[in-house]
Amino acid sequence: MTLPIPAIDLREGKVVRLFKGDYAQQTTFAFEPEALAARYADDGATWLHVVDLDGARSGHFENLSTIAGIASGGRLRVQAGGGIRDEEGVRRLLDAGVERVVVGSVAIRDPEAVAAWIGRYGCHRIVLALDTRFRDGLWKLPSAGWTADEVHTLDDLVPWYEAAGARHLLCTDIDRDGTMSGPNLALYRHLATLAPGLDVQASGGVKSLADVTDLSLQGVAGIILGRSLLEGAFGLRDAIATADKANATC
């Protein structure tokens, strides 16, 4: 079953979107984060994806109070990340009411530590954010808010984490992120072959309900929807109905 998941990216307490992960190419939207979360709940969302973009780059939570406010509303199950570099960061998000903690840079730089967290907190509490861009024939893994390439590649880490007991993987094609140019279906086919036991959340480029159908038929567990909802390309209710229809045909 594929679930559309609305996303809220936070920078200085505001709802924003970046273009291809570039902090210099930011669009700021006139929505209050908690009001937007409530609107998504009204439209049928059960999960919400929240990113502290300031924290993703600095390594320190800078929007934690906003994330906690959204989680405390109790209407949405929240997965959130940005700025987690150690286990204390995991605990702080869980204590703030977040149900799933999304780990990115540290999942690339210190897999052994993240595998230990999966063992300690459970595979359903940790989401690996292995965001990627294709360069020189490899799916590379930038970190620190997508500003620095790491040694490990996607093909290195995904099977390793599956063997280590991970369950949830969020994978963004950075070159599609915020572009509304369509998702990279080939990437998600590749991941299904690479680690069939993982529940993959697709992110980046979704522009239409046809994209929601294509990703649902691909068998991804979740579809992260950011700019497409904020700019009104389609509504969340329609996205959920479209995914349900595609799920029924699988």
TrEMBL record:
Gene3D superfamilies: Aldolase class I. CDD domains: HisA (cd04732). It catalyses: 1-(5-phospho-beta-D-ribosyl)-5-[(5-phospho-beta-D-ribosylamino)methylideneamino]imidazole-4-carboxamide = 5-[(5-phospho-1-deoxy-D-ribulos-1-ylimino)methylamino]-1-(5-phospho-beta-D-ribosyl)imidazole-4-carboxamide. InterPro entries: Aldolase_TIM, His_biosynth, HisA/PriA, Isoase_HisA-like, RibuloseP-bd_barrel. It comes from the Bacteria. Its EC number is 5.3.1.16. GO terms for molecular function: 1-(5-phosphoribosyl)-5-[(5-phosphoribosylamino)methylideneamino]imidazole-4-carboxamide isomerase activity. GO terms for biological process: L-histidine biosynthetic process; L-tryptophan biosynthetic process. The keyword Amino-acid biosynthesis applies. Transmembrane segments: none annotated. The active site is at D9 (proton acceptor), D131 (proton donor). One of its GO terms (cellular component) is cytoplasm. This is 1-(5-phosphoribosyl)-5-[(5-phosphoribosylamino)methylideneamino] imidazole-4-carboxamide isomerase. It comes from Luteibacter rhizovicinus DSM 16549.
